[in-house]
Design brief:
The structure is a homodimer. By secondary structure, chain A is an alpha+beta fold. Chain A has a domain at 368-457: Anticodon-binding domain (Rossmann fold, 3-Layer(aba) Sandwich), CATH 3.40.50.800. Helices cover 44% and strands 19% of the residues of chain A. Chain A is built from 19 helices and 18 strands. In chain A, helix 7 crosses helix 13 (260-278) and helix 8 (184-193) packs antiparallel against helix 13 (260-278). Chain A is globular. Chains A and B meet through helix 1, strand 1, strand 2, strand 3 and helix 5 of A and helix 1, strand 1, strand 2, strand 3 and helix 5 of B.
């Protein structure tokens, strides 16, 4: 019989991997809660009518579709079949699909439950999503997203708080990051300013590569994509903008002074940066990580309408590990227009890799039980069970090896699991009523009462 | 545009529902960890070859199948189609399905990762499962299972620990329960004893109804199902067994003395009950809930081979809220025979209903932020953001209302969310550097410094 396996692009998570993932998820969850965001969950399956057309043509193809239960061929005519594997046939065979992200289900949730929701609605969601992407290194067909969004408030204080959340999460995780901020309105302003509002996608795509390919290549790409020489010329000042956030803001403000939208974008970013700067706690800026205005940052162009964020790890080359931004029409697709929102999403898989590479997991985050009782036989094991029960009542995670196996096997079990202490209750200990506690790190053995053992292990 | 909806049998979970569910899941998770069980996760999608044939013919039909990506009609001949909606065609259209329970994926996991696992392997798993069942009250197409299993150990100490886990979880949740125990070998022994080993299913199904339908009807049902009058006669002593666990054990031991398997079952139950009884902590039995030998308890007959457990709430009529047992051949279906295991599964949805009905959720389990700062305008909000940041650094969940909306609207937000305190920083407070803290329960307002506010809220 061949070994069973799992579908490509999916993963099993072992106890050690789960402990590490939980450490990340719990950190994010705790910080979200600290800011008053509240968790919701939506079903893994959504109606395909909810999902289709929301992620572009390519996205539709990447949706996992669920075969209708029962007689799924009913109502399907020979002509449907003769067309071959069309999306049309898939739509007849399948009414439901697996969620592709957390954003569309959230929009659906808000519209469906609009009458029950108190606005502004601050929600977070930590759930897996599924995409029928070609699996490759670091890209999976099932992965978790960790989103927080607030809808029903235009206030830029929400942007400020989300940046604080990002800062707090990475500070708690011990990852040094740089938080990049830009504003979709600034990008629009640039395109307007150079007289080519229709070329915003081409312009932002090109300038986004500035660091990598240099000014000349950016200009060549712009020209290739139909941006006129005159427009490229008018964009020139952008390439000269440098310095700290304030200098950059002043420069871009001057450049976009003729454009209303662009000026609005500059003002929004200025407000967010100034508010963050003013948040002094005990005389110190409350932010541990640097926030950088990055005028070339572009993401979610079809989607974001205001501030956009992106986070990069400083000590590992891995691309963006968190992103987000403001959108003005999330729920419009479901018939509820005019609801503004802003959100962020932590990239759990990449954060996992960063923590692994930098070896930043705290020991107690990945540890199972704190003590293993060796099993010396029926009477000794009964006593061990009793002491273990007392330890657990004191909040100490304790295991009793269930079988009276060879000592070597039991010690090897403790070693493999990384249990920090082993407790021995043999014949002698039974008589004297003590426990021999072995520190697995130092090898040191001490004879302790149950009370002393509890004290030692709660240290 | 019609309101969007979700597939029938699935659910959205609101913030309050999620908080309650997390309270349950965290309680179970904490107790599992306290006993050294470690969490794993498996993918939502499994290969259909892993799932098919594991849940009986009916189960196969209830699997959600995922349409192959890309050209799913490739290789499907007209003759495949002319057969109509056969399982054969579904198998060609779909390679993957959604997991139906956590047990088969766990078995698959153990076999697939056998070389990496340290035995005994104690794992827990909290994940959703999907079944294309007809939805009805209390039965969903997506629901969570909360399983713990240990494989690779025959020791009955595992049974003892799992019962302790059940007892601890329900004690922590505040639900009074009765834990029922029986043993599959006792049921086999009964069938052997009356000379009808082939009728074990009919016998156990009938006697399971003893409480509901009475002795005469049980006997009639047995006769209807082909159990001979002589055999029914030999079963008679079972109906007379009563009293405490020890009396029942003595009686069933006597009745099954002629049967080796049955006697083994009695011994197993006796060991588990005696060990539990011997676990005195500070002179008291460590179990808070009663454990009852229930000789008519039958569950998972095709599956369990030793002790079986079932838990019933004492104060709510709702059926079994937790169950489990020992199996001897979980991984045999995947080519790894001879691995014994024992496990339990908490019914989260029913536990949720019980806690709701008895109103047992602790206040802090369902609460969001602890304090809301009223937004009186830009300058005041900036100060509020600063104080909120300090509160959060002290671990207090705090919200700042993002918009300078009407006071009434902001207070209504605080009320709806059940925020226990509201903090007011208006013009006066700005000048004097204090915070007016309003207790939403009593209506009492106090003027406090930031330090005093932190003290008040961490009480």
């Amino acid at each position: 019989m061949t070994k069973p396996s799992i579908p490509k692009g999916t993963r099993d998570f072992s106890p050690v991997e789960m402990a590490k993932r939980n450490y990340i998820f719990n950190t994010i969850r705790d910080v979200y809660a600290l800011y008053g965001y509240r968790q919701i969950e939506t079903p893994a399956m959504e109606n395909l009518s909810t999902l289709m057309g929301k992620y572009g043509e390519e996205g539709d193809k990447l949706l996992f579709k669920i075969l209708n239960s029962g007689d799924f061929m009913r109502g399907i005519s020979p002509s449907d079949l003769s067309e071959g594997a069309s999306g049309h046939l898939a739509a007849q065979l399948c009414e439901k699909g697996l969620r592709y992200d957390l954003t569309v289900p959230f929009a659906r949730y808000v519209v469906q439950h609009r009458d029950e929701l108190q606005m502004p609605f601050k929600r977070y969601q930590l759930q897996p999503v599924w995409r029928a992407d070609r699996p490759q290194k670091g890209r999976y067909r099932e992965f978790y997203q960790c989103d927080a969004d607030v809808v029903g408030s235009d206030s830029l204080l929400n942007e400020v708080e989300l940046i604080q959340i990002i800062d707090t999460v990475f500070t708690r995780l011990g990852i040094r990051v740089s938080i990049h901020i830009n504003n979709r309105k600034i990008l629009t302003g640039m395109a307007n300013h150079i007289g080519q509002p229709d070329k915003i996608v081409e312009i932002t795509t090109a300038i986004d590569k500035l660091d990598k390919i240099g000014i000349d290549n950016v200009k060549a790409e712009l020209a290739d994509n139909g941006v006129t020489p005159e427009a490229i010329n008018r964009l020139q000042p952008l390439f000269q903008i440098s310095g700290d956030n304030d200098s950059q803001l002043a420069a871009i403000a001057a450049m976009l002074a003729d454009d209303e939208v662009g000026t609005k974008g500059v003002e929004e970013v200025r407000f967010v940066l100034n508010t963050l700067k003013s948040l002094m706690v005990n005389g110190q800026c409350s932010m541990a990580n640097e926030i950088t205005l990055d005028l070339t940052l572009a993401r979610g162009l079809n989607y974001y309408t205001g501030c956009i964020f992106e986070v990069k790890a400083l000590d590992v080359q891995i691309g963006s590990i968190t992103g987000g931004g403001r959108y003005d029409n999330l729920t419009g697709i479901f018939g509820m227009p005019g609801l503004s929102g802003v959100g962020i999403s932590f990239g759990a898989d990449r954060i996992y890799d960063v923590l692994n590479q930098l070896d930043l997991y705290p020991t107690n985050a990945v540890q199972g039980a704190q003590v293993l009782f060796i099993n010396f036989g029926e009477a000794e094991a009964a006593r061990a069970m009793q002491v273990a029960t007392q330890l657990r009542q004191a909040g100490i995670a304790a295991e009793v090896y269930p079988d009276a196996a060879k000592m070597k096997k039991q010690m090897s079990y403790a070693n493999t699991l990384g249990v920090p202490y082993v407790a021995l209750i043999g014949e002698t200990e039974m008589q004297t009523g003590v426990i021999t506690l072995k520190d697995m790190q130092t090898g040191e053995q001490t004879q302790l009462t149950t009370e002393q053992t509890i004290q030692q292990l709660t240290k």
